[in-house]
Amino acid sequence: MNGAESMLETLANNGVEVCFSNPGTSEMHMVAAMGKSSRMRSILCLFEGVCSGAADGYGRMTGKPASTLLHLGPGLSNASANLHNARKAYSPVINLIGDHATYHKKYNTPLNSDVVGLAAPVSHWIETVADAATLPAAAARAVQAANVHPGQIATLIIPADCAWNDSTAPLEAQDMPESLRVPVANIKQTAALLRNGKTTIMLMGNTALTEKCLELADQLSQATGVRLYCDTFTARLPRGAGRCSIEKLGYFAEQATEQIKDAEQLVMVGTTAPVGFFAYPGKVSEFYPADSVLHTLAEVQHDAEQALTDLVAELDAGKFAPRRIKLQKPQLATGELNLKAVGQGFAALLPTDAIVVDESATSGAYTSALSATAEPHDWLSLTGGSIGYGLPLSIGTAVACPERKTICLQGDGGAMYTNQALWTMAREQLNVCVVIFANRKYQILQIELARVGAQSMSPRTLDMLDLSNPDLDFVKMAESMGVKATRATTADEFNQQFEAAMQTPGPRLIEVMLD
Amino acid sequence: MNGAESMLETLANNGVEVCFSNPGTSEMHMVAAMGKSSRMRSILCLFEGVCSGAADGYGRMTGKPASTLLHLGPGLSNASANLHNARKAYSPVINLIGDHATYHKKYNTPLNSDVVGLAAPVSHWIETVADAATLPAAAARAVQAANVHPGQIATLIIPADCAWNDSTAPLEAQDMPESLRVPVANIKQTAALLRNGKTTIMLMGNTALTEKCLELADQLSQATGVRLYCDTFTARLPRGAGRCSIEKLGYFAEQATEQIKDAEQLVMVGTTAPVGFFAYPGKVSEFYPADSVLHTLAEVQHDAEQALTDLVAELDAGKFAPRRIKLQKPQLATGELNLKAVGQGFAALLPTDAIVVDESATSGAYTSALSATAEPHDWLSLTGGSIGYGLPLSIGTAVACPERKTICLQGDGGAMYTNQALWTMAREQLNVCVVIFANRKYQILQIELARVGAQSMSPRTLDMLDLSNPDLDFVKMAESMGVKATRATTADEFNQQFEAAMQTPGPRLIEVMLD
After folding, report:
1. A44, A374, B85, B179: most buried, per Cβ within 10 A?
2. What is the mean pLDDT of residues A422-429?
């Protein structure tokens, strides 16, 4: 058994079953090993950023790592932006990166580069394999590293000869790391804060945003009056009928500071104190009142559910029944197609247990607001701010949960960064409906241009943020990669097309034409 | 004048006139500055890898740097693979990377990352600006760094407040660094080697591959019998009628070792000793005979033309008239469309002074071989091995040389990494003809799979390298981004479409259907 084969069995023995692949020559033995084994599903992507985004989506939905297969430093570079997003989502991911054979690395060949250097900013854990014999154990360590709660990016660099030389036996299933428990002292301290009568905000993020955690938080809110908010961008948020409600903190400083302007205390659960996404001239970076008290109940590596359970017990909040959202769907719109009409159709027709991948940017206000009381669903956001995550992430969620419908709400500008993802959706016949908001501009930037106080709003400047010359045709683009696509120019057309997509498995793209 | 404006004027004063842009919020003041000034042409790209590839192409054709405008760490990540290629081509490039405002960087915001860490593996020079007052001088240093002979990647990281705060006056034109001159002792030593009667190979690369250098090398060959080869992958190689001939070293070990198996001495000019692109089990990494003598006349930072001029004088080789290639065009093929037919049509119809950007991989043998005696042209290759450079590079060459026709010979697999480049070609109406070789597989990898001795060639394995499920439709894809496109299924169709493209300015794509 060569290194690649033993590594693959080790990964499979430790629960890694999917590999999002864009291989090259130095990964050929890993490709061959996957071809021989039935224990790792290899999903071919035409760009490495699709691999890493898909692994992020898979990790968010399953809580366990997928692997990526990447070709030396440049393959990692192409994956890097979506690894950044995955890192900010605390998704577990294992990167398998081929490199030159150990004895070949010293030459100044075209593909030689500092792979470790490229990996460091986007990885929590990096190991370069020394020889074939130690590759299986290194692979097992990579799985453990990826599983550090709530999830880490583990990067394993595999020189080609370590894959092709004879190796040792695969490792069996290893113990995986556990989350940290919040100390009792902190539970009591937090309880005291919630009891002291001051205006208190609880800000929740990451692993504190499970259905159960939201129920516990709602009980705390009923018991103490604490107001609940979650981060603006969340890896995964359960929403809709039957779930407990939580309000998102606004994106812009003027929104968020207004929401929590009266806070005397902030309690963070699974996240950090709220600050601006960007700085703006003359605006604050910190969203909380300057004299408010900041307290962290659980950091991201803690078991948020246990902490909230302990806190509920401490405050005797268990007697309150969680207040659950009642199903309430908007009417379908008719006539003109605008963002509100799309939001109405989306919220009304959203199927139970849908997975919504949101990269709609400025087009998303109504889809988000109107679906708060829709059928229960999960909402996945852009955690790292790196545009081009929506289509790739949707591959991963659909691979993880094939029986659920993934709906990708996607701005046209963002779609272009990683449009190659459409081909993989077609190839794997993934259960994804992509809704493209075609406003034909980087609208968020036209807003930001004004907000940062940049003085030129001349046609020449705005042209630099305009996508209408020439117009993009997403129907043709989807069809060019094998995805069935239609264009909606009226509310009725959108409703009809979206409903059909919800009722039919497999990939589908709807281009929403906005003025 | 704010920092962004003064920076822009400084760059323009130092010959930087083009910016390949994919901005975000932190770059808004730079966008505004470009909107107000007419001295920097901003070319919008829909993905940062298009920006960096375009800057590489611009640098290769003009010898001077273009700038890129990138959005924080993730924008740099997306640009990184083509920066790797640019670095290996020794192209001058200036990256302008916005980052969070100096006082905002300390927060753990979504887009925060280690920008310097991401930049290091792909940059020769990095500087993070401290304040608006020092930004213009830093920009001037960036231009100097990019112009270190023959070209460097200079990365300037610009916190947003350094762009928006009041700054100092722009800097005027600065002195630029000069190339190194090869010492006389080395000229004499090299001359002695060429005179000693041993079988000698001269391997040329990078700046040693100008028209003039090839003439000088041809004179040396006539005078001493030295055999001339160039690197397999060259940043720019003048070819065709009127130029002097040079043979490329083969890509595979078995080709290259055969070509130079009798070498007793190797003289390197602007490059290093030839080694394998990859290692293969049981095959050598070093292509030259183990007992051959290696000697470097000029390293890449030296003035290769001066060194060869000095060597010609030392050896009295100036009396030999350079042997120039005579124009000889193949017949046009008719009937079945195959790689040879494409090569014939391409070579026969190639216009004078065309720029050929080659990412054809396994499909390129005939186009390259048959055009050796075609109209004079420049041939640009993939210097860093990172796939997805062809379409972006063609943007840069067409911006640099609008009056010359750029022809991009592009494999279908490689085209998918950065297909967004097509939109910029349409937007700027660039003079580019893209020829897509649609063989619907990663054919090079199917070859490499066998060569590395991977044992599984099962359908399951081969499927991982197959692009035919579903078929890509490059005509639709090009049209979706505003580029006129046609499909060639016979030799006659290809000839007709290619000839029309050569005679019509502006962008055009031809999908060559291969079996």
Report:
1. B85
2. 98
Phi, psi of A55 (to 5 degrees): -65, -35
For chain B, say whether A310 makes contact (Cβ under 8 Å). no
A252 touches chain B (CB under 8 A): no
pLDDT band at A454 (very low <50, low <70, confident <90, very high): low
pLDDT tens by residue, B419-433: 999 999 999 999 999
Dihedral, CA of residue A374, residue A375, residue A380 and residue A381, to nearest 10:
0
User: Of chain B residues 469-498, which have a CB less than 8 A from chain A?
Assistant: 469-477, 479-482
Contact state of B104 with A46 under an 8 Å Cβ cutoff:
no
Q: How far is it, in rounded angstroms, from Cα B64 to Cα B87? A: 14
Do B164 and A31 make contact, defined as CB atoms within 8 angstroms?
no
* pTM, rounded to two decimals: 0.98
Specify which residues B19 forms β-bridges with.
Answer: B42, B67
Domains of chain A and CATH, by start: 3-164 (3.40.50.970), 184-319 (3.40.50.1220), 339-513 (3.40.50.970)
**CA distance, residue A369 to nearest chain B CA (Å):** 23
Residue A89 has pLDDT above 90, yes or no: yes
The pair phi, psi for residue A50, each rounded to 5°, is -70, -40
Sheet holding B237-239, edge to edge: B237-239, B377-380, B354-359, B406-411, B432-438, B508-513, B485-488
Report ipTM (2 d.p.).
Answer: 0.97
Question: Burial code of B442-475, b = ≥16 C-beta within 10 A, e = fewer?
Answer: bbbbbebbebbebebeeebbbebbbbeebbbbbb
What length does chain B have? Answer: 515
Distance CA A260, CA B5 (A): 37
Residue A455: the pLDDT is 64
CB neighbour list of residue B69: distance below 8 Å, 6 or more residues apart: B19, B20, B21, B22, B23, B27, B30, B31, B42, B51, B96, B98
Cis peptide before A110 (omega within 30 of 0): no
Partner residue opposite B110 with nearest CB, options A107, A160, A383 = A383
Confidence (pLDDT) at A446: 86
What does the alpha-carbon distance between residue A449 and residue A453 come to, in Å, rounded to a whole number?
Answer: 7
A195-230: string of b/e by CB count within 10 Å (b at 16+)? eeeeebbbbbbbbbbbeebbbbbbbbbebbebbbbb
Residue A457 has pLDDT above 80, yes or no: no
Each residue's pLDDT tens digit, B355-407:
999 999 989 989 999 999 999 999 999 999 999 999 999 999 999 999 999 99
B454–A81 CB contact, under 8 Å: no
Residue A73: which of B49, B121, B233 has the nearest Cβ? B121
Tokens, residue B344? 């014939």
Which chain A residues contact residue B463 at CB under 8 A?
Answer: 35, 44
Give the helix ranges, DSSP H, for B360-416: 365-370, 390-400, 412-415
